[in-house]
Amino acid sequence: MNRYFIGLIPPEYLSNYITGVKQHLADNYNSKAALNQPPHITLVPPFELDKSKEENLYQLINSSLKDTYPFLLTLENYGSFKKKVIYMDVVPNNQLNKLASILSEVLQEQGLIKPSEFEYHPHITVAFKDLTKENYELVWKEYKDKKVYFNWDINRVSILKYVDKQWVVLRDISFSHG
User: Fold this and answer.
1) Is 90 helix (H, G, I), strand (E, B) or coil?
2) What pLDDT, in 10s, does the model give residues 123-137?
3) Antiparallel, parallel or unpaired: β 2-8 and 156-163
4) Which residues pair with 168 in a beta bridge?
5) In sequence order, what are the residues at sequence separation of 6 or more whose Cβ sits closer than 8 angstroms to the Cβ of residue 63?
6) Can you list the positions of beta strands (E) in the chain?
7) Are 172 and 60 contacting, i.e. CB atoms less than 8 angstroms apart?
8) How many domains does the chain have?
9) 3-state secondary structure of 79
10) Pick from 41, 25, 78, 44: nearest CA to 154
11) Other beta carbons within 10 Å of 41
């Protein structure tokens, strides 16, 4: 079985900026785990699937997007979860929530994921797993008041696959109305 998740990948200029933030945190706070995944917003968390069913997954996601139109998404400032995760925050967006809900429902119907016990909170992680409590305090002090503001048009989703201890984009699926 292989591991996959569905997400949104920012455009190259923004991915490069976010990767720079992750690299700064790796270099200065020994938090390297976030570098094992491209900058992204998770729509559907990781799930397992037999490699032979990748094409079926693509078809399923593609057909689920048939009524989806592009929309503008905004990242603004930084946030934190449980004194362990630092992230760039996504401004609340109904279209994003609807997209995540549609994809989750479709994958639940296929038995690939279970309903989440957590409320959906879209974000882009810049530090997590290997961030020590001490370094979390230092990073949060540096980033809690740092201002960032980015917009980009969402017109596709990406299927990511876990390969050689890192997440890679397997396939992008554009919205049919995009």
Assistant:
1) strand
2) 999 999 999 999 999
3) antiparallel
4) 161
5) none
6) 2-8, 41-49, 71-81, 85-90, 123-127, 149-154, 156-163, 166-174
7) no
8) 1
9) strand
10) 41
11) 21
- Is 100 within 8 Å of 43 (Cβ atoms)? yes
Question: Does the global pTM surpass 0.85?
Answer: yes
Please tell me the distance from the alpha carbon of residue 84 to that of residue 89, in angstroms, as a whole number.
Answer: 15
Give the CATH number of the domain where residue 143 resides: 3.90.1140.10
Structural domain span for residue 27 = 2-174
pLDDT per position as a tens digit, 136-157: 999 999 999 999 999 999 999 9
Tokens read off for 27: 């270099």
